[in-house]
Please model this.
Amino acid sequence: MTGPENYPPSCVDLVGALAEPDRRSAFAALVLGATSLGEIAELAKLQSSVAVAALQKLSESRLVVVNREAHTYALVEDAFRRAMASRAVMAPVPTSAVAA
Model:
């Protein structure tokens, strides 16, 4: 599988990856268990070419891994946790900024 690099995605990467409706639809299809391009496109109600573009961006953002041999896609289950952990190490949120 090709996929997540050795560094975690940033929170900005994740928000950017999910900023477009087509990418959110493809992501949702993966959450619901779709793994092949056909399944993702069908469940997300996207044309195959649109689904491919969405999955490419999700992969580049380290939210999705691609198994090129099996032609399948899978979510990076800990992408959000890793992004937040990375954020906490890089720049902790001041306690005054946390809602009570």
Q: What stands out?
A: The chain has a mean pLDDT of 84. The first strand starts at residue 64 and ends at 67. DSSP finds five helices and two strands in the chain.
